């Protein structure tokens, strides 16, 4: 574990050598990232943290590990649970996320099949994350007729709203459309639609979909996990 991932980077040899009285793993609460937090009980929003939460596990503070070692048994996680992450301070982990439920019934189309996921995580990991949330990956979308009532004004989330403001006005409507399980969501690589070259990509999306589908970036996906709701 590295400090870059905001994980504990200390010497764990004293803990790993400790003989613990382990309970039946099938009856014990599944845990994800054991991580350090700030004074407000929040942690950095790393990919590993998000993947763990999306899988239905819960995140605990590193102190849980040390206290368990001292007592020789896995102590209850109450009091050690992480409040949330620093990217979405307005949202808290008030309940355990149910694996495969958050985006159940949704179709997600990764535009052109692949985007630059960056050094923090791979493209394959992002696809896995989408599926873990219960969404179905689709290769293409078709032109559809959308009624005005489908596009009521909604809060599209902090990251999505911030990014939408950077999209040229001509195409911005696609990035502010609300998401519905009855309408596929198009995920785009934000780097491909920046600058003058981005117009050709946005034109391509508009031409093939009539601009009828909501477009989002991976930050929207992460925001949904942080908030434990589709935004």
TrEMBL record:
Give all residue intervals belonging to the BRCT domain: 43-82
SUPFAM superfamilies linked to this entry: BRCT domain
Q: Quick one: signal sequence residues?
A: none
Record's InterPro entries? BRCT_dom, BRCT_dom_sf
Gene3D superfamilies under this entry? Answer: BRCT domain
The parts of the chain that form a coiled coil are: none
Provide the protein name.
Answer: BRCT domain-containing protein
Q: What organism is listed for this UniProt entry?
A: Coemansia erecta
């Amino acid at each position: 574990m590295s400090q870059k991932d905001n994980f504990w980077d200390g010497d764990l040899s004293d803990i790993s050598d400790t003989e613990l009285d382990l309970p039946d793993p099938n009856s014990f609460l599944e845990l994800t990232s054991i991580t350090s937090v700030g004074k407000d009980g929040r942690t950095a929003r790393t990919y590993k943290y998000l993947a763990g939460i999306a899988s239905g596990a819960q995140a605990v503070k590193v102190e849980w590990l040390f206290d368990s070692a001292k007592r020789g048994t896995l102590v209850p996680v109450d009091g050690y649970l992480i409040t949330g992450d620093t990217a979405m301070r307005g949202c808290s982990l008030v309940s355990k996320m149910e694996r495969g439920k958050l985006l159940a019934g949704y179709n997600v189309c990764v535009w052109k099949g692949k985007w630059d996921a960056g050094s923090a995580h791979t493209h394959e990991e992002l696809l896995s994350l989408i599926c873990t949330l219960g969404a179905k990956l689709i290769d293409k979308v078709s032109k559809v007729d959308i009624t005005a009532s489908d596009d009521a004004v909604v809060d599209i989330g902090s990251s999505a709203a911030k990014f939408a403001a950077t999209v040229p006005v001509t195409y911005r409507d696609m990035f502010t459309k609300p998401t519905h399980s009855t309408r596929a969501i198009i995920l785009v690589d934000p780097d491909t639609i920046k600058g003058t070259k981005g117009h050709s990509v946005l034109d391509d999306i508009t031409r093939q979909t009539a601009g009828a589908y909501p477009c989002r970036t991976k930050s929207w996906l992460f925001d949904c996990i942080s908030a434990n709701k589709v935004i």
